[in-house]
Amino acid sequence: MPFQPGCRRLMLQIDILLSALANGLMTGAVYALIALGLTLVYGVLHVINFAHGATLTAAMFAVWAAHDGLGIDPYVAILILTPLFFALGYALQRFVIGPASHGSDSNILLVTLGLSIVIENALLAAFRSDTRSIDVPYGFSVIELGNLFLPLPKVIAFFASFLVAALLWGLMAHTDIGKAIRAVSREKTGAALSGIPVEHVYAVTFGLGAACLAVAACLLMPTFLVNPRVGNAFVLVAFTIVVLGGMGSVPGALIGGLIIGVVESLSGLYFGESLGQIGIFLIFILVLLVRPAGLFGARA
Amino acid sequence: MTAPLLVVEDLTKRFGGLTAVDRAALTVRAGTIAGLIGPNGAGKTTLFAMISGFETPTSGAVRFEGRDVTALPAHQRTAAGIARTFQIVQPFAGLSVRENIAVGAYLRRAGRTEALAHADAVGRAVGLGPQLDRPAGEMTVAGRKRLELARALATDPKLLLLDEVLAGLNPSEIRDMIPVIRRIREGGVTILIVEHVMQAVMSLCDEVHVLAQGRMIASGPPLAVARDPAVMEAYLGHGAAARIAASARNPGAPDHA
Amino acid sequence: MTGSARLPILIAVIVLALLPLGATSNTLLNFMTFALIVALAAQGWNLLGGYGGQFSFGHAAFFGTGAYAMGLLQVRFGLNPWAAMPVAMLLGAAVGWAIGFLAFRARLRGAYFALVTLAFAEVFRILANAWAFTGAAAGLLVPLKLQAANMQFEDKRLFYWLVLAFVAGALVLTAELARSRFGARLVALRENEDAARALGVDTLRVKLAAITLSAGVTAAAGGLYAQKSLYLDAAIAYGPWISVDALLAPIVGGLGTVFGPLIGALALLGLGELSKMALGNLFGGAVPGIDLIVFGILLILAVAFAPRGLLGLFDRLIRRPRPAEGGEATP
After folding, report:
1. To the nearest whole number, what is the mean pLDDT of chain C?
2. pLDDT at position C304, please?
3. Chain C: residue nearest B150 by CA?
4. Does B236 touch chain C (CB under 8 A)?
5. Are B59 and B178 within one domain?
6. Distance, in angstroms, between C128 CA and closest chain A CA?
7. Cβ contact (<8 Å) for A300 and C107?
8. What pLDDT is recorded for position B245?
9. Which helix (DSSP H) or strand (DSSP E) does residue B216 occupy?
10. CB pairs below 8 Å between A and C: how many?
11. A16 Cβ under 8 Å from any chain C Cβ
């Protein structure tokens, strides 16, 4: 039977491909959550928060510290870290980024770059460059789905990410602050004239972005490693997703996140670890170069 | 009658479903001052942008000195001799008034000395002499308008497109500006102005073109155009011309609506 | 804009040239050589970012190209470093032109231009880290051969003076450029691109020329760095550190000024060394990243309080206070 081994190899390849695909989708959901925070800030302030990646790193270290020092399970930590990072994001925008930027977009870019350098290197000074991870009892639990073995923490992350996105959508659609945010994002001057406190709304938006990161960090840590530079990888991934999905678009961020998760997983499969990352950057560059006008709307 | 310098043929611009300019045509003869007027949202700015190369028309053509320039990008039209000013004036804040004007002067002069000398001359001609060394960011609105004019003029244009160069000025500043524009024409530059200040249009222009809802509804000498019923309708609303005509026949009614 | 800067340049270069004659400390000489290399990279950045207003977050792409070209041309092709240097600058300039061509034709500006340059630098870093030709993760060693003909000097002061000569060249280039038609057009498009186009400025061409020149100068810094350390890896050559330093120095020193990058680089790196020493003593050992924390804070402070950099502050202190122009107001 000369065809037998070839056929089995093909089956095996399909299994590997499917599991890479599933893995990509699950990681992609968390990417989407990270991108959600970024796209939210872009949608309202029309600027890029360059400190997004460093804030994520800080959140991941917070999860690690909560687990390692206080024995708090990462999923429980969501309840503590989310409000904490909301407050942090709020304060950063209200008291640092806003006042230091004098309302200029390129200044915001530079100030958030400065913040990312400070945060990243403060973490480096505090935790050194070692890579850390946490051990949770369910860390290696899997869910069997036919021939696929899906890691439980990733499945949880997948569904939790969509839950958070839904909550955020509900907040934007049905609450007063959500309406205020949408009003400011559409017409800042008009919103200010009708009595909406624009600075407060900006700060809340930054807070929500940081809160998304806290949740993402809690969902990531059971399966990911953290070191002071880990945010760099995530931030470009998040930028790619946001650019791909359309700046300021929430559904765009979700779909973009899933696409990028899959692309990363597949290019890791075919190009190996060291070159795998390159796929993301190339997509990022291509998207920016080929469809910039369509992606940026009026404010290019 | 002099030769036409600028000929706009059936220019159309659509943004999605909206037709901003609809087969607009106009001719500007060399050595004249032509006006482009119309109610807000008539498409004047879009038409202006297409003539200067900042917007690409959906269809139609722009001819300058008999040559089709429709496909030329903005900077090449300036090189061909079409200069424009902007309604919202934004001086190059990092440069002095003289250096601002020199950016225009550099178009036909590579050397710094010649460009600065030309900038000086143009600056004085528009009344900016005392302010040449000041940082451009510190100027008043009236000063900025003159700077905007000087920068465009420094490119040695044959045709100067002025976009609401009088908007935002007070009556005495407008009175000061009008002779400046006249002198530019006397210097051999043909001018097309978009203007809201009617009094200025009436006193400056040899010919006026009226755009309403993207269409060219009237062209001719200022007084004739002002009496055109279609123009009155466009400005004052449907039925306005009939009402005015009626009130004119009716003794005792005021002359002007 | 500065008027004739020839005399200040001459004075600055003479002072810097005399420095190693007085101070013989090897540490100081090493520091100064490194600081001048960073200043050179920053002078490159300043041409595009300071004068042209196009903020690149990825000048590592040019620095690294210059560095790897310098190393590889010697190691793989046996070229003499004096001949390799201009080639390295040309290659860096070519990379700058290519990135500029893609990015500016796509009309990327502001944050998008910053991000796309960053992404290019990262792509180069990953490639250099994976490709055997560039030495992959192990890096690239340039053999030690202490001969002047080999651009390696017994007396380290000679190399310092060589770097200084490049810095002096970049200062003169910047000063000349600032007074030229090209410089005026570059500043014009920084301030208002549409207004510049209306005055006949081919903005794409001017931006392309600026990024090409900028990349060439920064590539020279990379080449000098390679020759100074005789070792390269991807994280050094294409690492984000140089992108940040090259951008930070002009912002701290004075954006779009002739001396801004030099003053900024010396101030920045000096302060970084001092804080490393001070905090190292405090904690009884080196604290990684402490200098970068200081850099980040300085960047925020400079944007918040000194939009015209140290030179602007200095101006305000010694001269009649000028009415504040505010940041760059975006309409």
Report:
1. 88
2. 87
3. C199
4. no
5. yes
6. 10
7. yes
8. 67
9. strand B215-220
10. 143
11. no
CA atoms of A279 and A277, how far apart (whole Å)? 5
Our answer on whether B and A touch (3+ beta-carbon pairs < 8 Å) is: no
Q: In angstroms, rounded to a whole number, what is the distance separating the alpha carbons of residues C85 and C66?
A: 8
Mean pLDDT score across all residues of chain B:
87
- CA geometry: angle B194, B197, B201, nearest 5 deg: 65
Question: Quick one: CA torsion of C158, C162, C165, C167, rounded to 10 degrees?
Answer: -120
List, in sequence order, every residue forming a beta bridge with B64; answer none if it has no partner.
Answer: B6, B67
Four-residue CA torsion sign, C108, C54, C94, C200: positive
Number of domains observed in the structure of chain B:
2
First to last CA, chain B: 35
- Residue ranges of the domains in chain A? 29-229
d(CA B58, CA A158): 47
Q: What is the pLDDT of residue B118?
A: 94
Based on the fold, state whether residues B76 and B187 are members of the same structural domain. Answer: yes
CATH number (3.30.870, 3.30.360, 1.10.287, 1.10.3470) of C6-262 reads: 1.10.3470
DSSP calls for B40-109: TTSSHHHHHHHHHTSS--SEEEEEETTEE-TT--HHHHHHHTEEE--SS----TTSBHHHHHHHHHTTS-
Query: Which is more confident, B34 or B252?
Result: B34
pLDDT (tens digit per residue) in A242-266: 877 777 777 888 888 888 888 888 8
Collapsing DSSP to helix, strand or coil, B209 comes out as: strand
pLDDT digits 0-9 by tens, A34-53: 999 888 888 888 778 889 98
* Burial B174-197, CB ≥16 within 10 A → b, else e: beebeebbeebbeeebbbbbbbeb
Minimal-distance CA residue of chain B relative to C326? B137
ipTM of the complex, rounded to two decimals: 0.86
What pTM was estimated for this model as a whole? 0.86
- C→B contacts (Cβ < 8 Å), by residue, are 1, 179-181, 184-185, 187-188, 190-192, 194-203, 256, 323, 325, 328, 331
Amino acid (one-letter) located at C99: I
- Which H or E run contains B163? strand B159-163
Domain that holds residue B146: 86-156
Q: For A140, how many CA atoms within 13 A lie in the half-sphere containing its CB?
A: 1
Provide the residue count of chain B.
Answer: 257
pLDDT tens digits, C16-33: 988 888 767 888 899 999
Phi, psi values for residue B96, rounded to 5°:
-75, 170
The predicted structure's pLDDT at residue C324: 41
Nearest chain C CA: its distance from B229 CA (Å): 37
Mean pLDDT over C68-85 rounds to 92
Per-residue model confidence as pLDDT tens digits over C104-159: 988 888 888 988 899 899 899 989 988 888 888 888 888 888 888 888 888 888 99
